Amino acid sequence: MKAHYKSIRISPHKLLVIGGIVQNQDVKYALNFLKYLPKKGAKVMYNLVKSAASNAENNFKIPLKNLKISRVIVNKGPVIKRGLPVSRGRWHPILKRTSYVSVELAMKE
């Protein structure tokens, strides 16, 4: 039971922090925790965990109370390059990083 989200406009470092918190947690606990966490990455992770849980319920008929988050994988996505013009015809680069995130669910033991 998996869910993937690609090219999210948030840096992988910020998502890694949130992914580390919810990994190996119950799905209900993780959804409740992410719902009230005041970070942009929490909203992204909330939608992803909810999608994975819905996949498990619809495709495998596994109730939500029997699921836990077994793995959260955060990888670098493509970098969007922008720039800031400065004096003397120069240009300071600004890198807007993106992320790929995958969430895997498993049955509780």
Automatic annotation (TrEMBL):
One GO cellular component, as annotated: cytosolic large ribosomal subunit
Keyword Transport: no
Keywords: Ribonucleoprotein, Ribosomal protein, RNA-binding, rRNA-binding
GO molecular function: rRNA binding; structural constituent of ribosome
Keyword rRNA-binding: yes
InterPro entries in the cross-refs: Ribosomal_uL22, Ribosomal_uL22_bac/chlpt-type, Ribosomal_uL22_bac/org-type, Ribosomal_uL22_sf
GO biological process, one term: translation
Subunit composition and interactions: Part of the 50S ribosomal subunit.
Family indicated by similarity: Belongs to the universal ribosomal protein uL22 family.
Function: The globular domain of the protein is located near the polypeptide exit tunnel on the outside of the subunit, while an extended beta-hairpin is found that lines the wall of the exit tunnel in the center of the 70S ribosome. This protein binds specifically to 23S rRNA; its binding is stimulated by other ribosomal proteins, e.g., L4, L17, and L20. It is important during the early stages of 50S assembly. It makes multiple contacts with different domains of the 23S rRNA in the assembled 50S subunit and ribosome.
Protein name, UniProt field: Large ribosomal subunit protein uL22
